[in-house]
Amino acid sequence: MTHAPLISVRGEAVLEVEPEIARLSVHVQSQERDRREALDRLVERNQAALELIRSYGDAIEKLETGGLSITPQLKYRRREGDIRAYQGTVWIRFTVTDFAVLGELVTRLGDLERAYVHGPDWGLRRDSEIYKQAARQAAGEAVERARSYAEALGARLTGLVELADEGLTSDTRAPAQPMALMAGYGAPAAVAEGAEPPSIDLEPATQIVRAAVEARFTATSPDLD
């Protein structure tokens, strides 16, 4: 019994694309001597942050509360239970799809009292067509490479034995430095009281999408003469 020759190859695709979404988070805080006052201030500031984010309508793809805490702050070197204040924190996470409003939204959030903004974290959607495109290109490269090997031996491909997905990942060309803004402790002198803060320019980080496959093909007998 004879076996057809096998050609094993690896196909890879690397795509550089613009991000589709930007993920951000906001920590809103309060600190008061009374627990109830700390909670009341936290509710007010949380509502103000949510209303601001929601005011951007369809530019916001996802909005959720990541967590809430009210923590007693103990006096320094005092017995347990001697509380000097209560600190409240709410963590808000949201996703922006319209980058045209991103700079304005970030600075307006950073201008809120006792608000800490973290982001943006650029990325692609989980079901992005870019991943499928990269996978198709990797498979096509595997076929072309196998065909080149076969032609070099005077043979031709006759069938596919196996195609295995080696992996599909996405990352940024260079890690984007997260931007953090702490607000509520005095506005810059250049910004008049009650005026809107200036919008900050944000440049989306290029996303690198990689796909790789391993494949085995059958081929006709080579012409080694």
Automatic annotation (TrEMBL):
TM ranges: none
InterPro entries assigned: 26kDa_periplasmic_antigen, SIMPL/DUF541
Gene3D superfamilies, A to Z: Protein of unknown function (DUF541), domain 1 (3.30.110.170), Protein of unknown function (DUF541), domain 2 (3.30.70.2970)
Name of this protein: SIMPL domain-containing protein
Organism: Actinomadura rugatobispora
